[in-house]
Amino acid sequence: MRVDLVAAERFLRERHGSGIEDVAAIPRQGIWSSAYTFHRGTDAYVIRFTPYRDDLERDRFASRFSSPALPIPPVTEIGEAFDGYYALTPYVQGRHLDTLDAPEMRATLPSLFAAIDALRRVDTSGFSGFGGWSDEGRGEHATWGDWLLAVREWREVRGLPPWRSRMAASSTGTAPFDRSFEVFASLVDRCPGERNLVHNDLLHFNVLVSDARVTAVLDWGSSILGDFVYDIAKFAFFAPWYPRWSAIDFAAEAASFFRSIGTRIPFFELRVRCYELHIGLEHQAWYASRGEWDNLEWAARRTLAIAEPA
C-alpha cells in the first residue's frame, strides 16, 4: 500500500483541520508502509500508513518499555485509512544510524549497546513463547530452538511466493543454504533458551542518533522474543554490507561493552556465530522470495564464509 504526498496531506487536513503544515515524505520509506512528517501548530509528528495494523500495535506495545537508554516514540493514535491503517507518533530529531561513517559509528556504539542492554533487561515475564509475537505478547513458537530451526521451512510472508523453488532456479542455487544450515543446526542446542525482547531490525533506517546517542528506536514489526545476542549478531553479519563499517568488529566491541558493565555472556562467540548463520539463511530465503538475485548471491557467500571459515 503506497500513499502519495497529495493523499497524505488531504487525509491529514480532513482529519485534523486546516492547522496542518509542512507535510513532507520521509526520505526512507518502508517496504510495507508510507511515512510523512508534518506540523500541527508548534508540534511535529510522523504519520505512517500501512495495510498491517499488527505492526502499528507492536509499536504501541513496545513504547511502554521506553527509557533514556531505549527511547521509543509513543504511538498517540491508530486508525483506519485508505483501506489500511495509520499511526501518529511525535517527530524525533536525529540521523539514521545507517548513514554514520566509521568514526561516528564507533562513537555511537556505547549508546547502541546500552539500548540493546535495555532490551535485555525488559521484564518479559508477561510474555509467552518465542519468535515473532502478537500485540498481546504471545510468541509463535514454543521454544527458541524451534523458532531458529524453522528457518528451513516455508512460511507465507505477506503474499511473497515460496522461496525454495525460486532459490533452486537461481544461479546461486540451494547448495549454499543447505551447507550452511547443517553447521547452523549443530549449534542451536548450545544456545540458551532465554526470552528477551529483541528488536531484530536495528539496521535498515530504524534507529535515529544525534551527537553519538540513540534518540529513537523505530518500527517493531520484525521484533521477536529470544536471545538478546541476536541483535548484536545482526550488526556482525551485515558489517561488510556497509563499506564504511567493514573494519569494525561489532561482536568484539559488544563483548567489551558488556564486560565493562559487569555482564557475563556465556558462550558469546558461539551464540553470535549461530545467529549470524540464522540471519544469513533467513535473508537468503527473503531475497529469493523477492527475486533480489544479487543480494541472494551476497547473502549466500557471506553465510558460507561464517559456516566454513577459511
Primary descriptors:
Phosphorylase Kinase, domain 1; four-stranded antiparallel sheet; 2 domains; 10 helices; 12 strands; Aminoglycoside 3'-phosphotransferase, Chain: A, domain 2; 310 residues; five-stranded antiparallel sheet; alpha+beta
Explain the overall architecture.
- The protein has 10 helices and 12 strands.
- With 310 residues, it is of the alpha+beta class.
- The chain has 2 domains: 5-90, 2-Layer Sandwich (Phosphorylase Kinase, domain 1); 95-307, Alpha-Beta Complex (Aminoglycoside 3'-phosphotransferase, Chain: A, domain 2), CATH 3.90.1200.
- The protein has a 5-stranded antiparallel sheet, sandwiched between helices.
- A hairpin with a 2-residue loop joins β4 (77-81) and β5 (84-90).
- α5 crosses α9 and α6 (175-188) crosses α10 (293-307).
- The mean pLDDT is 94.
Write the layout of secondary structure elements.
Layout: H1 5-16, E1 20-25, E2 34-40, E3 43-50, H2 53-62, E4 77-81, E5 84-90, E6 95-96, H3 102-120, E7 130-133, E8 139-141, H4 144-149, H5 163-169, H6 175-188, E9 196-198, E10 207-210, E11 213-217, E12 224-226, H7 229-238, H8 250-260, H9 268-290, H10 293-307
Antiparallel strand pairs: 1-2, 2-3, 3-5, 4-5, 6-10, 7-8, 7-12, 9-12, 10-11
Helix pairs in contact: 3-8, 5-9, 6-9, 6-10, 7-9, 9-10
Strand content: 15-25%
CATH superfamily of the largest domain: Aminoglycoside phosphotransferase (APH), C-terminal lobe
Q: Return the CATH class of the largest domain.
A: Alpha Beta
List the domain count as a whole number. 2
The assigned CATH architecture of the largest domain is: Alpha-Beta Complex
Strand order of the largest sheet: 1-2-3-5-4
Give me the strand/helix succession.
Answer: HEEEHEEEHEEHHHEEEEHHHH
Distance between the termini: 44 Å
Number of helices: 10
Shape: globular
Using only CA atoms, what is the Rg? 20 Å
